Amino acid sequence: MKVAIVxxxxxxxxxxxxxxxxxxxxxxxxxxxxxxxxxxxxLRSFHxxxxxxxxxxxxxxxxxxxxxxxxxxxxxxxxxxxxxxxxIHAHYAIPHAASAYLAKQILESRRIKTxxxxxxxxxxxxxxxxxxHRVIKFTIEKSDGVTAVSEYLKQRTIDEFGIRHEIRxxxxxxxxxxxxxxxxxxxRKTYAPKGEKILMHASNFRPVKRVGDVVRIFAxxxxxxxxKLILIGDGPERIFIQQLVKELKLGDHVYFLGEQDYLxxxxxxxxxxxxxxxQESFGLTALEAMACGVPVICAETGGxxxxxxxxxxxxxxxxxxxxxxxxxxxGLLSDPKKHELFRSQARRRAxxxxxxxxxxxxxxxxxxxxxxxx
Length: 374
Ligand code: GMT
Prior knowledge:
Layout: E1 2-6, H1 13-27, E2 31-36, E3 50-54, H2 68-83, E4 87-91, H3 96-106, E5 113-118, H4 121-124, H5 130-142, E6 145-148, H6 151-161, E7 168-169, H7 188-191, E8 197-202, H8 211-224, E9 227-232, H9 238-247, E10 254-258, H10 264-267, E11 272-275, H11 284-291, E12 296-299, H12 304-307, E13 314-317, H13 322-333, H14 336-353, H15 356-372
Parallel strand pairs: 1-2, 1-4, 2-3, 4-5, 5-6, 6-7, 8-9, 8-11, 9-10, 11-12, 12-13
Helix pairs in contact: 2-3, 8-13, 11-14
Bound molecules: ligand GMT.
């Protein structure tokens, strides 16, 4: 198949899923054209059968906001014609689904199909905003195929937008080959020289991630046992989090690593992953942690209960239940047998339910189904 995959290039789950899907499909011989405003970070190295096309938008003094959605639609039209593409797969509805719809209208004489994959905030936060609502609803309904990354997100989309179009749930995935321990290049000694336990969190440091809760949970754990906290990522809340770390006098125990392209090498250092988000349609980082044998303590929200099994691969508690999250962390980390059991159960669940080898063929089959449809 010849497919355009449209995505964000930045450190975020939707861009990771789109890039890893592109790699998996290209490995199977499909011709994949990535369309984005920059090279996605997971596609910086060469991959056979993947072609990256950057969308440039001219600036003009009249434009307060550069019309990216139009530049994107134009690029799609050109690519479909030049490369004879059959399908446009938009990851994250805003504005990608609208641009794909526009491209399809312009290309009316060609039988081009469009698929939109909903990732989360495109429905729950940004999409729910009144200023986008009608366009999101319209473009989802006009997509030839729609997928969501969890049952939760599918239901939320139906409730929020009254969508009648079928939404297929295709879970996010991990390449479990990359999660093999021989890929570990993080040394525990660097971060925990005295054998302290290592807690980890990775996100885009937006308010929805509740990184403050991560620090407060860690503070409670620290009171009970020697521990270190590794924070990965960057975003608007980072400055407040640094301040909070100072206020709680945790400066010697918390590391800020900034954005990292691959998390697996770091996860091999971790004893526990924390994701106490307000909202999480799936929680790809939690899955990546599990694949490396790291149990997850998270908020019982969104699609997280579909990924983490309470009492087996981690613990789920209501949003903001810092005390319970910290107690479970201490309980697990001070019981080596239980911790080891959780580690192996986490690894097994990631590999049995969310393995790239199972999920990528689901996308492939969905593409074929949509291409065959009338
Ligand atoms: O908010 C983020 O973490 C970024 C966002 C994205 O689109 O990059 O993540 C969303 O999509 C991910 C991939 O499908 C999911 O794993 C995240 O749960 C989801 N984020 C939220 O729902 C807040």
